[in-house]
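Support request, please re-run this one:
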Amino acid sequence: MELSYRPILKEDWLTVAEIYKEGMDTGNATFQQQVPSWDEWDQGHLKSCRILAINNQK
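Re-run finished. Output below.
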C-alpha cells in the first residue's frame, strides 16, 4: 500500500465528517454529541496536527 499525506482542507470536510461520525458512534473518538461544522472543527483543532492519509493504490 502506498500512502501520501497532506493537510486536511475545508473541501475534505464532508468525507472527514463521515469518519468523525463513525468515531462518535463507537464512543471512542470524542465526547461531542453531534458532528461539528467545518468552521467549528477548524476553530477547535490545531492546524499543525491535521493530516489526511491518501491511499494511492490503483
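The chain has a mean pLDDT of 90. The beta strands are 3-7, 51-55.
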